[in-house]
Amino acid sequence: MDLNVKVATILLKKADPILESSTFSFSVPEGTGARGLIEMLGIPVALVGSVTVNKRRRPLDTLLSAGDNVAIIPSISGG
């Protein structure tokens, strides 16, 4: 199934392999959850602060559906 994915710019270079665009379409198998998508993209899950699906914040165990708009947002730290 195809998803519309947006990855925060800071996470692009953290992915393995490095992602070249912050917005793209990505195909995953039926039954894939948000955590599975993050892992398929090669982004370390520990760096992800939150995920939104169709503009609503969702837990990482949320199952995704064809056509979902998924945004992957980094953890924020500061001092």
Can you give a write-up of this model?
With 79 residues, the protein is of the alpha+beta class. The protein has a single domain, classed as Ubiquitin-like (UB roll), CATH 3.10.20. The chain is 14% helix and 33% strand. The chain has two helices and five strands, in the order E-H-E-H-E-E-E. It has a five-stranded mixed sheet. A hairpin with a 2-residue loop joins strand 3 and strand 4. It is globular, with a radius of gyration of 12 Å. The N and C termini lie far apart (41 Å). The mean pLDDT is 95.
CATH architectural group? Roll
Distance between the termini: 41 Å
Which class in CATH terms?
A: Alpha Beta
Might you state the CATH topology name?
Ubiquitin-like (UB roll)
Number of helices: 2
Number of strands: 5
Strand residue content:
25-35%
**Computed CA radius of gyration, to the nearest angstrom:** 12 Å
Largest sheet, described in full?
A: 5 strands, mixed
- Name the CATH superfamily assignment: Beta-grasp domain
Global mean pLDDT = 95
Query: Widest sheet: strand order?
Result: 2-1-5-3-4
Unreliable spans = none
SS-derived structural category: alpha+beta
Could you give the order of the helices and strands?
Answer: EHEHEEE
State the helicity in percent bands: 10-25%
As for the number of domains, it is 1
Overall morphology: globular
